[in-house]
Amino acid sequence: MRKQFYHFIESGQIHHKKSKYYDYGMIAIILLSIVPLLFKQQTPLLSSIDTLTFLVFVVDYLCRWLTADFILKRGRMSFLLYPFSLMAILDLLCILPYISLLNNSFKLLKVIRMIRALRVIKLFRYSKNIRIITNVLKHQKDALLIVGVLATSYIFVSALILFNIEPDTFPSFFDAIYWATISLTTVGYGDIYATSILGKTMTMISALVGIAIVALPAGIITAGYMEEIAKTQNGSQERT
Amino acid sequence: MRKQFYHFIESGQIHHKKSKYYDYGMIAIILLSIVPLLFKQQTPLLSSIDTLTFLVFVVDYLCRWLTADFILKRGRMSFLLYPFSLMAILDLLCILPYISLLNNSFKLLKVIRMIRALRVIKLFRYSKNIRIITNVLKHQKDALLIVGVLATSYIFVSALILFNIEPDTFPSFFDAIYWATISLTTVGYGDIYATSILGKTMTMISALVGIAIVALPAGIITAGYMEEIAKTQNGSQERT
Amino acid sequence: MRKQFYHFIESGQIHHKKSKYYDYGMIAIILLSIVPLLFKQQTPLLSSIDTLTFLVFVVDYLCRWLTADFILKRGRMSFLLYPFSLMAILDLLCILPYISLLNNSFKLLKVIRMIRALRVIKLFRYSKNIRIITNVLKHQKDALLIVGVLATSYIFVSALILFNIEPDTFPSFFDAIYWATISLTTVGYGDIYATSILGKTMTMISALVGIAIVALPAGIITAGYMEEIAKTQNGSQERT
Amino acid sequence: MRKQFYHFIESGQIHHKKSKYYDYGMIAIILLSIVPLLFKQQTPLLSSIDTLTFLVFVVDYLCRWLTADFILKRGRMSFLLYPFSLMAILDLLCILPYISLLNNSFKLLKVIRMIRALRVIKLFRYSKNIRIITNVLKHQKDALLIVGVLATSYIFVSALILFNIEPDTFPSFFDAIYWATISLTTVGYGDIYATSILGKTMTMISALVGIAIVALPAGIITAGYMEEIAKTQNGSQERT
């Protein structure tokens, strides 16, 4: 009986109809548990939603612990090991914010619940387009990593130079990093910017070269996407 | 005689010369009816333009109703059904703003008239380039939809995190969504932005990942466009 | 003798060595004549540069008029027709600002002189890369025109909607157009933006769709560029 | 013995294990020497880091000078010539800032030390992806140069026009160049922008055309990247 219960709550069991209903229910509860995060004042309704979703998560956590031997397949040891597995820690982190009620930023641990939602979304991965996009990211992983390192280094060096040219503009080095990131992504809020001639000159050089660096990941993703499409088409042509 | 009249007012009848003149006339009236929207003060001239175009739209609406049996091809029932067809409702919405004269934002229903203008533009769809662009959008529909969902989710999660990190910066969750959209599209007005260290750090991470997400639709459209060109060329080569 | 003189001043005569020197001299004079535009106060030095370049342009204008029969190849009539040819009018417009000394914005006619500089740059057009870039722009002319019309229409409709939603934000319709252009190009100065809930919502929708429209010309240019490269390579392969 | 010492300190000697350790040590010292640049107040700890790294650089400089005959391979003359070689001058510039202690912006010479770090990074150049990216930049060098010249000219002309239309907005021509760069890279801080009707109109035209120019380098890099991938794949296919 516990085995059937395990199959019921375990997500990603496509052929098990009731399991699917449980998954959909959990997604609804996860989304519901996020609703109180969208408001500043905690009304009685929002508080009761918080309590309700908290209780569901506690029950879900306990149920998974009770079927730990089916998840980890390690016999009796499973019950001892389960609370230290990654999924169990994440689940615990989702529950903690309600108990503690410490402060606002701590509330954000609830966002971790979304990872759970992502687990369920795995069901949709058989779609052709999602597969192509994930394939692009997977095959171009190395190139994107290098471009990422390049962009990060560029931001760091730009920030370092500006911070030493205009120490009055930037209260700390963190602000220089913030300025460089907001400038090179071309967001440009205008809350912080260089004011001296030398600082403005460096800003211009940074921005002009920054465009080329921003063009690199776009180029890599485009190239990867087209390669993937070509592969898919060649594959289907060879079969015919 | 009513049949000929129907052919006269019905748009998209390419081989019917007079119908084309009627279409061009209607586009001119539609554009004329938008002119009063471009000014704040309503001068006597603008008011008379409003009245004139209103009358033309009323006459056009009645004429279409009178020839409803040719449009819907349902016999006498057509006269009863026509006011509930999509085009008739849109036409009515275009006329209503003048009658009501309620408030400014209501005036915007006049913009719906542009949909009518679009209907006429259908005539130009036989151009090769427009066909390629619409083909790209049609064939990449699924991919663009997924990227759209991805971007929207990303904006929502960014807004959710920032809203809970810095409740003082954002009066409501709507403002957090507004901030996230303006930041990730790299518009960055600078009317709202994070001020705390944690908020700025999350802004930076959001912006850096946001670029990659923005690069995705560009990549998909480029890839789709090139595929479409290749197809068109292969098609013409095979024929020769 | 006048014929030789014509060959001397006429730009674009590659095989004529002295003509090239005259061209380089004229570019230097054109660039020199722009120098006074870079300063606010007119010092004696800048004034004398202005007078000097003015005199050179007058002499150049007269010389070209005197050799008009070689330029237009219409016999004596050429001398009468020349002042009304496009190049002569442009040359005259370059000279006028000095004579009039009317106001600042009138000074800008001097910028027209740069068109003359462009004429000389024609000499460099035999470079392979410039040819590819101009070919891309030429072959994708229709597509870019359609995208341009699309973008302009989109800016107009966005401005129209926002202007009627928030008449208090925008002093005139021109400001709404300015806002839409600065927002959709993602420049986002932050000098003008929507403040109402409805206005902000429309801003978000505008910005999100605007990205896709901005991605279109980039896609078209990229696709055109790759096609052009492929053509150049196929051409050289077929020859071998 | 001095020869072995030379092999020990010379960077880029892959097969020499101890040399690698020396390289890694130098990178650590270089990164350490940058730490004091990240803070405004000089604490005793930061001052001692400054002194320590200064001493290491002085020792490194002297060691390289002592083995100059192995570096330049010019016999005894090497010891005289070495201080005037590019690497020696760069090394000296890295040491100078500590001695002078003149002002803040002079501190930036330390950034030159990073060039030394880059020399070591050469070791990683055998990675496939970095080779592709550098190949793209190398093969598209001419095209990128032309686009660079085009973008710079465009910025200059935009600045020139705006500076003469609105002399009150821009204190000097430098500010106009700054405005044009920040606008056309779509950063748009909002610290400087046109306020007159004519100025705003020119801003709009500049921004709209600027997008197309920004799309060019992205297109070139994408096209170059895809060509490079295709070449790599064809190469490996021909071998099989």
TrEMBL record, chains A, B, C, D:
Subcellular location, principal: membrane
Residue ranges crossing the lipid bilayer per the database entry: 21-39, 45-67, 79-99, 144-165, 177-198, 205-226
One annotated GO molecular function: voltage-gated potassium channel activity
Keywords: Ion channel, Ion transport, Membrane, Potassium, Potassium channel, Potassium transport, Transmembrane, Transmembrane helix, Transport
Location of the Ion transport domain: 20-231
Cited Pfam families: Ion_trans (PF00520)
Subcellular localization: Membrane
Topology relative to the membrane: Multi-pass membrane protein
Swiss-Prot/TrEMBL GO biological process terms: action potential
Cross-referenced InterPro entries: Ion_trans_dom (IPR005821), VG_K_chnl (IPR028325)
One GO location term (cellular component): voltage-gated potassium channel complex
Name listed for the protein in its UniProt record: Ion transporter
